[in-house]
């Protein structure tokens, strides 16, 4: 199934030949893992990193597209969200003490996955997953043949600006419970737009997320904590200022939604220009944050750009 408009059956069912199991980190923390080996000859392997508050079922439709093209697809829920437990006391708050914990987890995941995956090996990252994938590339914790960053979180939208936003978030984390929710709902508090409008123009694909959460309440992570928010500001600022970006030799494709209301597309474009081997594909007002879950014309263009990049830069050896 290589066309972008895949049937809804691929969006609301785990494939029969896929496996959902656990991956235990060195400190004993269990992550929920999805693994879908290629049928027949393997084109290569994709390790997909989701965004903040995501769960892997949201991307089954895209996984089906790549799987049909011969890719072995693996993904895991991040520590502290969806099916990988919580790092704070609240069931519906996404909390982390330090973004370096995510980075260490990704390094361990990569080492285990790399040993089993037939190349070429490609690292994908959406939103927060894109930020962490690029951090891991810059820190040489991963060595993919290519990387695809989809609406990567390389800068956060903030009504007061990133610098003041970080100061406010750090202060709020210090004056109360650092693991408490930074706001009550939605993906950001300073907008009249619905959560659905911030993510996609496709009502049916947005409804898929709610359907999965109704099947398994663990998948609802909820808003971030004040510490998560402060760490996100800190981590993006440090990455954007890092000279190690110039050392990333991996070919990188960046898909940018210029009307994104969650992450800063200007920051992404600025970072891309500092990477030695980067391609940028831009989307306009027709696209919100979740490019892989957008209306068919946007999603088809995103998948076509990814496929062309992989054909050119991650050819079978």
UniProtKB/TrEMBL annotation:
Pfam assignment, any one: Hydrolase_4
Segments forming domain Serine aminopeptidase S33: 42-296
InterPro entries xrefs: AB_hydrolase_fold, Hydrolase_4, MAG_DAG_Lipase
Domain of life of the source: Bacteria
PANTHER family, per the entry: PHOSPHOLIPASE-RELATED (PTHR11614)
Name of the protein: Lysophospholipase
Organism: Sphingomonas guangdongensis
Source taxonomy: Bacteria, Pseudomonadati, Pseudomonadota, Alphaproteobacteria, Sphingomonadales
């Amino acid at each position: 199934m290589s066309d972008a408009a895949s049937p809804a059956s691929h969006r609301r069912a785990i494939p029969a030949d896929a496996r959902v199991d656990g991956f235990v980190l060195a400190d004993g923390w269990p992550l929920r893992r999805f693994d879908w080996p290629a049928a027949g000859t393997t084109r290569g392997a994709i390790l997909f990193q989701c965004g903040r508050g995501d769960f892997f079922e949201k991307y089954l439709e895209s996984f089906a597209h790549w799987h049909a093209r011969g890719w072995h697809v693996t993904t895991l829920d991040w520590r502290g969200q969806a099916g990988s437990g919580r790092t704070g006391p609240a069931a519906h708050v996404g909390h982390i003490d330090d973004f370096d914990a995510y980075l260490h987890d990704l390094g361990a995941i990569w080492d285990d996955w790399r040993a089993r995956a037939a190349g070429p090996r490609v690292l994908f990252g959406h939103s927060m997953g894109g930020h962490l994938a690029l951090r891991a590339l810059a820190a040489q914790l991963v060595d993919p043949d290519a990387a695809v960053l989809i609406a990567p979180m390389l800068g956060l939208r903030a009504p007061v600006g990133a610098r003041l936003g970080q100061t406010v978030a750090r202060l709020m984390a210090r004056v109360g419970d650092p693991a408490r929710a930074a706001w009550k709902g939605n993906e950001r508090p300073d907008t009249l737009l619905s959560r659905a409008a911030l993510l996609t123009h496709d009502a049916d694909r947005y409804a898929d997320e709610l359907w999965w959460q109704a099947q398994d309440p663990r998948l609802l992570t909820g808003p971030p904590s004040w510490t998560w928010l402060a760490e996100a500001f800190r981590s993006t600022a440090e990455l954007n200022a890092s000279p190690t970006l110039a050392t990333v030799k991996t070919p990188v494709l960046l898909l940018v939604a210029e009307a994104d209301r969650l992450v800063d597309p200007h920051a992404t474009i600025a970072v891309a220009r500092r990477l030695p081997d980067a391609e940028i594909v831009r989307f306009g007002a027709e696209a919100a944050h979740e490019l892989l879950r957008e209306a068919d014309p946007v999603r088809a263009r995103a998948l076509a750009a990814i496929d062309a990049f992989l054909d050119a830069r991650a050819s079978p050896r």
